[in-house]
């Protein structure tokens, strides 16, 4: 067999790229000027030591069959589980894990404290999975003045061990909780000879790895970590939490897991709360900072990668890490640089939050001392979290950055290298294997029947065909209004700066920023090779193509044009990646499909 076919079927393990290309540093902010994220170069300074992953075997997650992995789902803040209408035969209005449960049969769903710190949530998560009475740790409990022992659980996976690992899937704050649990396991916090290899994989969706700026807008004082403005939305929210814990019937309904740990029950029931203290949210839970505010903020997140070495989470060499970053939900104005939701926005309840995140400006002092970057770094968002916030911590290695525009290239469905991040930028959730959820209320029978009407279908097709025109008109209108509202000299100066720093002159040009990544090219080659090996028809096609090229005197090694089909394609089908890499002739999905028919 020729050297070409030998290379075609060679299954080499994907290794780290050694390109001397530096990823954008934290001080430079997020990757700007593009709403489509390509295979961005990896920071070689973070991953110069390649010896730790060279000899590790690639791992693939198993979703079905006798050897199916054990999947555990970890919810984030304000998770709501399954919402049903009891008076209408139990019609499901919304399901937090509907998308994941469609792909995984009978996953284990956990329910840690929805407003606790990462430490408390991770400890509760451990005992919910393993079983036993929750023990937050003696020193931790004394430091933050709450009870050391909590509830007792039977355990979802009592035989959980390094020989029987699990896969954690977390959304938002639940993803960082899963990572913190692995950190506690690797440091043997539970004193049961635990290790990080008890977790086979961690899959994150829209995780606040680098913190969120939303708490500051809601009322958290920058630089304080736990001090809340008394006249703010966040203060009202904390008061609501305390009132729920104060009234036992509300606490049983919402099940916040706070009353016993933080003594938030009324005094006549053994707690420390009076109605006045509950109404003003005066408690240990608020004052000591062992809550979601500390770890959700930018400052709290920074402590996980710029703090003490013992607090830094180190990636386990036997664990698979996939981080899905939700992108392309907003667009940036050329006039002010502010970000606005796109017309294709699916998460309507988060529209207002998206507008707030897309324009919130901090003072220079806060930018320098708290954010350590400009406010505009956090403007691109997915409705609840900035794109920059979803980047993995800078001290952890990234093997490659993937812009997912085809389901084939979702790394979760392939063998991938453990001990290092696969950073996946998701424009369209339908291209993912796990997270293709339906918009809110879309699963109601009435809504489903309406969507099946022919008139509604035709209108939807009309919108899809003309979405680019509508988007262009929408962008033009918003930028025109901004130009009229910000016509002072100061605004004109900011126009020149923002237009030069962030965006090009047209919508199409905003989506054309790509950079090369050798590791991503090798990974594409590996996936496409395996796909051809599993498809006899595709293999036969390339064999015939190779034989025809020999008859016309064309050799793969010569790099000659393909005279068989008359197209200027290389005889090797993988020289140009069909997705997320920079190429002079970037193939589309249709081109790729046509070439293998």
TrEMBL record:
It holds the Pfam family Lip_C. One of its GO terms (cellular component) is extracellular region. Its main location: secreted. InterPro entries: AB_hydrolase_fold, Lip-like_C. This is Alpha/beta-hydrolase. SUPFAM superfamilies: alpha/beta-Hydrolases. PANTHER family: ALPHA/BETA-HYDROLASES SUPERFAMILY PROTEIN, ALPHA_BETA-HYDROLASES SUPERFAMILY PROTEIN. Keywords: Hydrolase, Lipid metabolism, Secreted, Signal. It comes from Gigaspora margarita. It is found in: Secreted.
């Amino acid at each position: 067999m020729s050297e070409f076919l030998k290379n075609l079927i060679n299954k080499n393990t994907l290794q780290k790229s050694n390109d001397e290309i530096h990823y954008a540093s934290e001080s430079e902010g997020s990757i700007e000027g593009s709403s489509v994220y390509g295979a961005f170069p990896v920071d070689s300074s973070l991953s110069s030591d390649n010896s730790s992953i060279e000899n590790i075997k690639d791992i693939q997650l198993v979703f079905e069959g006798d050897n199916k992995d054990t999947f555990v789902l970890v919810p984030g803040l304000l998770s709501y589980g399954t919402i049903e209408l009891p008076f209408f035969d139990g019609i499901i209005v919304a399901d937090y894990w509907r998308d994941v449960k469609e792909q995984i049969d009978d996953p284990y769903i956990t329910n840690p404290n929805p407003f606790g710190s990462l430490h408390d949530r991770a400890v509760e998560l451990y005992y919910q999975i393993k079983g036993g009475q929750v023990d937050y740790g003696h020193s931790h409990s004394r430091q933050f003045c709450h009870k050391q022992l909590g509830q007792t659980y039977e355990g979802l996976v009592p035989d959980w061990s390094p020989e029987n690992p699990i896969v954690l899937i977390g959304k938002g704050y639940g993803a960082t909780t899963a990572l913190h649990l692995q950190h506690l396991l690797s440091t043997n916090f539970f004193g049961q000879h635990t290790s990080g290899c008890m977790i086979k994989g961690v899959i994150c969706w829209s995780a606040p790895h680098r913190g969120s700026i939303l708490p500051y807008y809601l009322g958290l004082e920058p630089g304080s970590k736990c001090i809340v403005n008394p006249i703010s939305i966040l203060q009202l929210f904390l008061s609501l939490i305390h009132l729920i814990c104060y009234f036992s019937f509300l606490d049983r309904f919402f099940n916040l897991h706070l009353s016993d740990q933080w003594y938030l029950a009324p005094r006549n029931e053994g707690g420390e709360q009076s109605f006045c203290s509950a109404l003003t949210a005066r408690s240990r839970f608020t004052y000591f900072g062992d809550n979601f505010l500390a770890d959700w903020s930018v400052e709290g997140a920074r402590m996980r990668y710029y703090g003490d070495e013992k607090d830094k989470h180190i990636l386990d060499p036997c664990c698979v890490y996939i981080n899905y970053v939700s992108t392309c939900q907003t667009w940036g104005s050329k006039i002010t640089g502010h970000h606005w939701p796109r017309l294709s926005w699916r998460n309507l309840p988060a529209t207002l939050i998206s507008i707030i995140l897309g324009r919130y400006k901090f003072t220079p002092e806060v930018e320098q001392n708290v954010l350590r970057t400009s406010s505009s770094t956090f403007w691109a968002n997915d409705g609840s979290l900035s794109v920059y916030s979803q980047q993995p911590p800078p001290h952890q290695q990234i093997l490659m950055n993937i812009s997912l525009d085809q389901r084939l290239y979702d790394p979760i469905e392939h063998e991938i290298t453990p001990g290092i991040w696969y950073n996946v930028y998701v424009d369209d959730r339908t291209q993912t294997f796990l997270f293709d959820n339906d918009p809110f209320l879309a699963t109601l029978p009435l809504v489903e029947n309406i969507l099946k009407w022919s008139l509604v279908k035709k209108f939807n097709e009309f919108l899809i065909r003309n979405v680019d025109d509508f988007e262009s008109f929408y962008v033009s209108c918003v930028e025109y209004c901004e130009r009229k509202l910000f016509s002072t000299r100061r605004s004109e100066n900011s126009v020149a700066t923002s237009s030069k720093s962030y965006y090009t002159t047209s919508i199409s040009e905003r989506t054309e920023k790509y950079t090369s990544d050798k590791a991503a090219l090798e990974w594409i080659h590996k996936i496409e090779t395996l796909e051809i090996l599993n498809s006899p028809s595709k293999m036969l096609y390339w064999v015939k193509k190779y034989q025809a090229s020999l008859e016309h005197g064309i050799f793969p090694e010569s790099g000659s044009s393909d005279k068989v089909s008359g197209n200027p394609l290389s005889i090797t089908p993988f020289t140009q990646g069909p997705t997320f890499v920079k190429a002079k002739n970037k193939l589309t999905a249709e081109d790729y499909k046509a070439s293998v028919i």
